[in-house]
Amino acid sequence: MIVQSNPHAVRTISTLVSVGVVVLLAIGCERTPIATAAEQNARPLVVCTTTMIADLARQIGGDRIQVVCVMPPGTDPHIYEPRPADSVVFGKAALVLYNGLHLEGKMLQIIENAGARAVALAEDERIKVRESTSAKGAPDPHCWWNAKYFMVFAERARDALIRVDANGADAYRSATATYLQQLERADADVRRMLERTPTEQRFLITSHDAFYYFGEAYGLKVDAVLGISTDASVRALRPDELARLVINHRIPAIFHETSVSQQLNDFVDRVVEIVRRSGHDVHVPSEPLYSDSLGLPGTPAETYIGALRENARIIASALSVRTATAASSQPMGADGGQ
Question: Could you give the 3-state DSSP secondary structure of residue 149?
Fold first, then answer.
């Protein structure tokens, strides 16, 4: 039985007990029962680091596998620090699926300990990785928000599952083919939703730089308060820089995110204050964007495809509004003056 957990509650994992007793792992967005040794042998245990990857594993593996998601919904993977119990679960996994590209930076040791059982879904030559402009040499790991790239994730997950459960090869191939078709449709839906956004307003400004690949795929220029990792500090002048961008391009909305700190979202609000003091209008939608995590179970964003569509809907609606600007206002100069 799936039990919805509070993403803000303290995460606990029951002690692993003797064979024949069901162990409940309160990990991620649900309590996943891990049954007897015989049942575990029949159903490989697949440990996933993020909610996006856990959803992918469930779509492809179905009832043939047990999926455990390490990070609950709303968790920031950039700063997540593994608990001792995570190492226990990783040690029991038949397969570990993780993003890679340094997204799970504080989990590298236990991932490396998994050896060949660990597969980095984002580390594939078919994915054109963007290097960070703020952290020299650091890759941008957020490539899953390009649905075409998430198809690569799906194919890599399929192949990894076949390696650990060859008897399920036909089932995994069939489920993946179906899921790839669903991703194709979602990709087309996102493009259609964003087509109504005026070209001059296709700017996506968020709490941290998680949407470059989304913008590249769907025709948006992307900027953010903070760079690709939330494990950093915001520069003092950054809100003023973004405010100038908003004013000069008459951008009607900028966005909070679900999986970042309130402090980062407060910096977005600071940009709004600066813009409004200059006689321009900008707003933050009541619904934040899903960046490094999916939504809670039972919400439209509980799956990757659901979250992708929700983000596109929120962005398209907010950026399609014409800004109300004071008649006397002029574009703000580089010094912040009129």
Answer: helix
Q: Is the pLDDT of residue 309 over 60?
A: yes
Do 146 and 307 contact (CB within 8 A), yes or no?
A: no
Distance of alpha carbon 44 from alpha carbon 39, whole angstroms: 9
Distances (CA, A) of 114 to 91, 186, 222, 312: 7, 33, 36, 36
If you average pLDDT over every residue of the chain, what do you get? Answer: 84
The residue with tokens 């002048």 is 237
For the domain spanning 197-319, the CATH number is 3.40.50.1980
The Cα–Cα gap between 55 and 67 comes to 9
Q: Report the alpha-carbon distance of residue 81 to residue 75 in Å, rounded.
A: 11
What kind of fold does domain 23-191 have according to CATH? Rossmann fold (3.40.50)
What does the domain layout of the chain look like in residue ranges? 23-191, 197-319
Q: How many CB atoms lie within 10 A of CB 322?
A: 10
Residue 158, helix vs strand vs coil: helix
Element (H, E) at 251: none
| DSSP β-ladder status, 45-48 and 118-120 | unpaired
Q: Which residues contact 142 (CB under 8 A, 6 or more apart)?
A: 103, 209, 210, 211, 212, 213, 214, 228, 291, 292
Identical fold for domains 23-191 and 197-319, yes or no, is yes
Percent pLDDT > 70 in the chain is: 78
pLDDT tens readout for residues 119-163: 999 999 999 999 865 555 579 999 999 999 999 999 999 999 999
Q: Are the C-beta atoms of residues 99 and 77 closer than 8 Å to each other?
A: yes
Indicate whether 14 pLDDT > 80. no
